[in-house]
């Protein structure tokens, strides 16, 4: 007789299988409208239908920042140079978060991770960082303080310029954004590049790559498989690919197409080339259970 735990696990696996396959069935093209940090994404076959609204922020909640970076730091402790990429960086909130957490955890020993290469195809969202600014909402400030041991002031200086963001989604919600000047020491840890990530990736070295390509896969349609293949080509056993939570819907990292990546069993949204059999387990499970559906 099966234990409760075993049957719970099987129910969870069934759920994941159905979820992943349902997501793959819907083939939708997307037409994002660029130029703002709150980016509306419409279905291209029905351009009047808002599909979702994407935005960025510092230390986005869909990631285990402390746990993941403790793991990366340990993994790279004997490696002299690590290449960190924020691919589809938006206004560089993510690249700044990575720089701040590395500096907080490692101090001067963090130098081997810098500069972080922040790449976005939309010059409009890069304007602030090019001028040394970042616009933050109050919740960004809370998270920055949380992950830097209350050292926001070490990295960022508040200005008196505040404004209300545009409406978020189809709601009346707006955020009060305040402009902060980025400390030059922090700013020089980030190299800002305006490029298409799909072409930029062609020129990257194939080892020690810490790749963040998060909350952006919807925009890669219909080149998601091509882009994932390129990321796989530049990922060795010392490389990691991090995606975002919304990416589960569009990123082809599923049981059907892994490109050699394995889901890290503990770090949410982190993939590596460890050859873990997590996906294989799912595959075996689904082969055995198919008759149930
Ligand atoms: C929602 S933001 C993600 C920001 C950040 N990665 C995060 O998780 O917070 C998506 C960004 O992807 C960028 N983008 C979309 N397609 C791109 C492409 N092919 N090459 C580079 N950037 C792209 C957009 O300009 C936008 O700034």
Can you tell me about this structure?
34% of the residues lie in helices and 20% in strands. The protein is an alpha/beta fold. It folds into two domains: 4-36 and 42-48 and 283-292, no CATH class; 49-278, Rossmann fold (3-Layer(aba) Sandwich). The strands form three sheets. The chain has a seven-stranded mixed sheet with strand order 9-5-4-10-11-13-12, covered by helices on one side. A hairpin with a 6-residue loop joins strand 1 (30-32) and strand 2 (39-43). Helix 1 packs across helix 11. Mean pLDDT is 84; it is low at 17-27. Bound molecules: S-adenosylmethionine. S-adenosylmethionine binds at residues 34, 39, 54, 56, 60, 88-90, 93-94, 119-122, 125, 196-198, 214-216, 219, 244.
Q: Strand tally, please?
A: 13
Please give the domain count.
Answer: 2
- Rg over CA atoms, rounded to whole Å, is 20 Å
What is the correct CATH architecture of the largest domain? 3-Layer(aba) Sandwich
What compounds sit in this structure?
A: S-adenosylmethionine
Strand numbers in spatial order across the main sheet: 9-5-4-10-11-13-12
What letter string, H or E per element, gives the SSE order?
HEEEHEHEHEHHEEHEHEHHEEEH
Low-confidence blocks of residues = 17-27
């Amino acid at each position: 007789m099966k234990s409760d735990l075993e049957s719970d696990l099987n129910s969870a696996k069934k759920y994941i299988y159905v979820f992943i396959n349902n997501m793959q069935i819907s083939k939708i093209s997307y037409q994002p409208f660029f130029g703002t940090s709150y980016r509306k994404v419409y279905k291209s076959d029905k351009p009047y239908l808002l599909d979702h609204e994407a935005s960025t922020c510092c230390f986005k909640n869909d990631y285990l920042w402390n746990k993941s970076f403790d793991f990366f730091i340990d993994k790279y402790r004997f490696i002299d140079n690590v290449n960190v990429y924020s691919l589809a960086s938006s206004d560089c909130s993510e690249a700044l978060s990575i720089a701040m957490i590395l500096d907080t955890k490692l101090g001067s020993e963090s130098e081997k991770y810098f500069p972080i290469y922040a790449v976005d195809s939309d010059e409009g969202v890069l304007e602030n960082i090019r001028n040394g600014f970042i616009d933050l909402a109050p919740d960004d400030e809370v998270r920055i303080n949380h992950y830097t041991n209350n050292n926001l002031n070490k990295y960022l200086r508040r200005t008196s310029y505040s404004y209300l963001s545009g409406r978020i989604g189809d709601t009346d919600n707006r955020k009060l954004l305040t402009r902060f000047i980025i400390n030059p020491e922090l700013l020089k840890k980030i190299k800002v590049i305006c490029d298409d990530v799909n072409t930029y990736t062609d020129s990257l070295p194939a080892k020690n790559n810490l790749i963040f390509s998060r909350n952006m896969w919807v925009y890669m349609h219909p080149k998601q498989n091509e882009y994932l293949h390129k990321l796989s080509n530049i990922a060795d056993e010392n490389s990691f690919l991090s995606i975002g939570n919304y990416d589960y819907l569009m990123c082809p990292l599923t049981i059907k197409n892994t490109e050699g990546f394995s889901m890290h069993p503990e770090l949410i949204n982190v993939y590596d080339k460890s050859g873990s059999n997590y996906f294989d387990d799912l595959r075996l499970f689904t082969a055995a259970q198919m008759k149930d559906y």
